[in-house]
Amino acid sequence: MIPSTQQMSRTTGDTGKGAGVVNHLQETEPRWFAVHTRSKSEKFVQRMLLKKGIQAWLPLQKLMRRYSRSTRLVEKPLINCYVFVRIVKSEYLPVLETENVAGFVKFNKNLIAIPEPEIELLKRVTLEDGLDVEAVPGAFMEGDPVEISAGNLTGMQGYIVQSEGKRRFKVALEQLGYSLLITVDAAFLQKTHWSG
Questions:
Q1: Structural domain containing residue 167
Q2: First and final CA of the chain: distance in angstroms?
Q3: Which of 61, 70, 191, 194 sits between 20 and 30 A of 52, alpha carbons compared?
Q4: pLDDT value for 130
Q5: Does the pTM of the predicted model rise above 0.85?
Q6: Backbone phi, then psi, for 135, in 5-degree steps?
């Protein structure tokens, strides 16, 4: 089940100790976690973390922007105010102490690791040229289950959402509390019996 934005809390000091609180940090096995950053400081936070020797990744999408006199290719974060870190327990505090880090993204006070397949999914999405992607809080409950049958995203499954005459392909990122809305030509989609 996808946690709603109300279930997510971004806290700074809780190390996950206490009765019934889940903490996926390990002593020796690095795992992926989402870090909440201050507005418009995702790239800065990634640079600062990398300088500390902490593995940090910021999913970026390339977009063409029209300005009054020119058109430019810009890189924009796929999910605003999020940077992903792959850390062990000893790196938890150095991440929190990084300038413009607001805290780890937690789910009902639990520090939950993001599964490797979800990080790989984000990487595949950001590598796809010309893909219209929008990260939105929450989940969608309507639409037909589909699978992409062509291109770099072949095999990805989700649900169709009708919006302004466009078919949007939805991929749930359960640990993030976000869904990706991806515009895909209907010719690249096939119906499936997948039920999520």
A1: 118-191
A2: 10
A3: 61
A4: 64
A5: no
A6: -90, 125
pLDDT classification of 174: cutoffs 50, 70, 90? low
Domain boundary among 90, 114, 138: 114
Return the top range by mean pLDDT from 7-11, 57-61, 143-147.
57-61
Average pLDDT over residues 43-47: 97
Q: How far apart are CA 150 and CA 15, in angstroms?
A: 43
- CB–CB of 133/168 below 8 Å? no
Number of domains in the chain: 2
Q: In terms of DSSP bridges, do strands 82-87 and 178-183 run parallel, antiparallel, or are they unpaired?
A: unpaired
- For 53: left if phi > 0, alpha if psi spans -120 to 50, otherwise beta; the answer is left
Give the integer Cα–Cα distance in Å for 185 and 22.
41
Residues whose CB falls within 8 Å of the CB of residue 163, separated by 6 or more in sequence, listed in order: none
pLDDT digits (tens, 9 = 90+) for 89-139: 999 999 999 999 999 988 878 899 999 988 998 888 887 766 767 776 665
Q: Give the whole-angstrom CA distance, residue 10 versus residue 105.
A: 5
Query: CA–CA distance from 112 to each of 4, 31, 51, 93, 161 (Å)?
Result: 15, 10, 25, 16, 28
Are residues 126 and 103 located together in one domain of the fold?
A: no
